[in-house]
Task: inverse folding
């Protein structure tokens, strides 16, 4: 490995550490801004509802893969969400052995309520802390973070720090929205 490549790999590790710390601190603060209602969603329940909102109907195994869990680990959360009327499960029309999980209107509303206070705090904090230009940069960074989150990296490349062969599906369109 050349010195330039090693230097870049070290810089990338420092950037990764800084980004993880920032994301973790922001996520903790957003959780702290959630209302104390008895119907507050857990992190996992909110994530399941958000994935269904963004992706449409998914199977329990697809949801588990997104969350990085075993399907059995989602059973309790799915049962609770179904009992609360926030999701609906039905048999697949294509394969009767498979279940589809869909978001209900009650689930959409629960998700909206869950993020409302956190979003209000975040918007106020952004206005109070950052200039309009910095908020624009953060908007671009948000798109880049979503792109990184969706990138598939081969396990072998991940272990050895070589990820340039992995290409995100959004590379052709560019990383950030037009300004």
Result:
């Amino acid at each position: 490995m050349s010195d330039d490549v090693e230097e870049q790999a070290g810089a990338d590790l420092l950037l990764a550490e800084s980004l993880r710390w920032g994301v973790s601190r922001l996520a903790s603060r957003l959780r702290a801004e959630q209302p104390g209602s008895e119907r507050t969603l857990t992190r996992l329940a909110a994530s399941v509802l958000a994935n269904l909102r963004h992706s449409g109907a998914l199977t329990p195994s697809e949801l588990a893969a997104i969350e990085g869990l075993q399907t059995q680990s989602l059973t309790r959360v799915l049962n609770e969400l179904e009992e609360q009327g926030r999701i609906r499960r039905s048999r697949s029309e294509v394969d009767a052995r498979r279940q589809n999980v869909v978001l209900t209107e009650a689930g959409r509303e629960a998700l909206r309520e869950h993020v409302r206070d956190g979003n209000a705090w975040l918007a106020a904090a952004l206005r109070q802390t950052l200039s309009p230009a910095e908020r624009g940069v953060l908007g671009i960074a948000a798109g880049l973070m979503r792109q990184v989150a969706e990138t598939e990296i081969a396990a072998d490349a991940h272990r050895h720090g070589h990820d340039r062969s992995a290409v995100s599906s959004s590379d052709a369109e560019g990383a950030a929205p037009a300004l």
The helical segments are 3-32, 43-55, 60-67, 71-83, 105-129, 132-150, 155-160. The chain has a mean pLDDT of 84. The beta strands are 87-91, 99-103.
